[in-house]
Amino acid sequence: xxxxxxxxxxxxxxxxxxxxxxxxxxxxxxxxxxxxxxxxxxxxxxxxxxxxxxxxxxxxxxxxxxxxxxxxxxxxxxxxxxxxxxxxxxxxxxxxxxxxxxxxxxxxxxxxxxxxxxx
Amino acid sequence: xxxxxxxxxxxxxxxxxxxxxxxxxxxxxxxxxxxxxxxxxxxxxxxxxxxxxxxxxxxxxxxxxxxxxxxxxxxxxxxxxxxxxxxxxxxxxxxxxxxxxxxxxxxxxxxxxxxxxxx
Lengths: 119, 119
Hints:
2 copies of one chain form a homodimer. By secondary structure, chain A is mainly β.
């Protein structure tokens, strides 16, 4: 079956959540949003491209920081309303310069910071 | 810093996306939604509890199917608007009886089903 981005299920803002997972470590790096055109661009270019809700514009991950995500594998979930992208991440994924955006753990009712920004 | 579920960033419907990842394999299993009370219940019980948008009720994962998710690790992302839960998944995570909800891959412009339902 050939893939058509318009067959995905988008929310009222025309967006679908996309989870990025590191292809080598398996670490979940971040979650961001795509519209149908961002999905198409990601597949066409191999550079993961989100839709920035704050800037209301396409966001080629790493375009300004150099922390590019090269697409390895593109998956769709059972309800077609969530994406899982396996990526080769160049540099840290998080805008705080940490490897992953998920660097805070809740442990015994307290928040614990698991890693520091890379230098 | 002690953790308060009300300090997370929820969408207009009062929900936050939660990604479930298998603690042993590292496989991303599913993404679903939680409200503040579901977050509190998940942490209090250790049984991952979502908010079902279709049924508008709490959804203790596996309550009817037996495919329970036992919480191992609870993480918050940098923007506090997404959760990552590491879990011990009992049985298949997907309602289609597949190990993960992300069983369709887009490969060379076509959709490929990567696994069959477990029996």
